[in-house]
């Protein structure tokens, strides 16, 4: 077959045997963007949508999703997650940036949990705001960083156009909101 570990020699799907892998601290960080109308973002920032505080509901949805990743992705191993955080930032007048960080001590990595967390958080933003903005788009769902395990450390290299730093996330308030 190929180097894809989720297939055996005959091409059949399989769950990878991680029994002989070392237990190490695994970390993964993923991100997603939700693009929307300026007025929609202002409603989110002002906590003025009828359904409630969009970012806090999205944060809880992302954390819950990370914990359920093995139920959603067929060949993922269930992991005893030690930490899941979701942060939001507003890098422009029409965008919510979402970042997750997942930590676990296990035999396999937490990349899928981090990616699932930002995806479900972004979907929750969409769900809570669709009554006022059906044209929102969810973009750039991607792994930003991972560490631990045999393959070592990975960090996404951002092209120069993306190297502008978004304002740091801040706890509480009507501005950006930090970790859960």
Automatic annotation (TrEMBL):
Pathway info: Cofactor biosynthesis; molybdopterin biosynthesis
An example Pfam family from this entry, by short name, is MoaC
State its Enzyme Commission number(s): 4.6.1.17
Question: Looking at the record, which segments are called Disordered?
Answer: 143-180
Q: Name one GO molecular function term.
A: cyclic pyranopterin monophosphate synthase activity
Keyword set includes Transmembrane helix = no
UniProt KW keywords:
Lyase, Molybdenum cofactor biosynthesis
Q: Which residues bind substrate?
A: 75-77, 112-113
What's the family?
Belongs to the MoaC family.
In terms of NCBIfam families, this protein maps to: moaC (TIGR00581), PRK09364.1 (NF006870)
This one is known as Cyclic pyranopterin monophosphate synthase
- Record organism: Lignipirellula cremea
Taxonomic lineage per UniProt?
Bacteria, Pseudomonadati, Planctomycetota, Planctomycetia, Pirellulales
